[in-house]
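Progress note, sequence design subtask.
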């Protein structure tokens, strides 16, 4: 597209607003600021962390991370053939897991992008891909306890000082503000 307004005959009238509109719609960003990023955290720091610190950063143990990764790595969400080659599913799962385990200001897309040395859009894309892949294996790895198991767990947790709690995930309490609409009577 030639937007050089100097290249026209004097007899031709240039529709400047139309040319500017054409320019704006053809350009993704009018002015895109450069955001400094570093992959040092992922490439050098994460692999060197001990298991406890790895769990703090990725929000799950190294062993569990590898198990989850092995179940989803071959999913079609990570094997799309577009213009750009896919990023390593390991990185995508790390970003997604970190995002799921973050709260407050550390949960912002900008902070997560900066921490992992990627763009904000990529953080959202990783999350979408991982959710799709995780949901595809949900039935084989997530099992809701039956009524008897829920009753037993609730009694044990009540006796341990956790009233109205059905269970825990990986030892982490998940507080619910509202009773779910599905199976709400079980809470």
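Output:
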């Amino acid at each position: 597209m030639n937007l050089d307004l100097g290249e026209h005959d004097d007899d031709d009238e240039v529709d400047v607003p139309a040319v500017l509109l054409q320019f704006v719609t053809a350009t993704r960003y009018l002015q895109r600021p450069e955001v400094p990023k570093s992959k040092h955290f992922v490439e050098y720091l994460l692999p060197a962390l001990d298991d406890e610190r790895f769990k703090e950063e990725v929000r799950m143990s190294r062993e569990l991370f590898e198990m989850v990764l092995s179940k989803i790595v071959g999913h079609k969400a990570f094997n799309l053939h577009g213009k750009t080659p896919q990023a390593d599913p390991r990185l995508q799962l790390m970003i997604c897991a970190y995002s799921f385990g973050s709260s407050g200001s550390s949960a912002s897309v900008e902070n997560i992008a900066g921490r992992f040395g990627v763009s904000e859009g990529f953080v959202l894309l990783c999350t979408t891909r991982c959710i799709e892949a995780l949901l595809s294996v949900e039935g084989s790895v997530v099992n809701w306890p039956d009524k008897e198991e829920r009753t037993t767990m609730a009694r044990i947790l009540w006796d341990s000082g956790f009233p109205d709690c059905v269970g825990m995930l990986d030892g982490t309490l998940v507080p619910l503000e509202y009773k779910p609409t599905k199976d709400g009577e079980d809470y």
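The CA atoms of residues 113 and 120 lie 5 Å apart. Work on this subtask will continue into the next period as scheduled.
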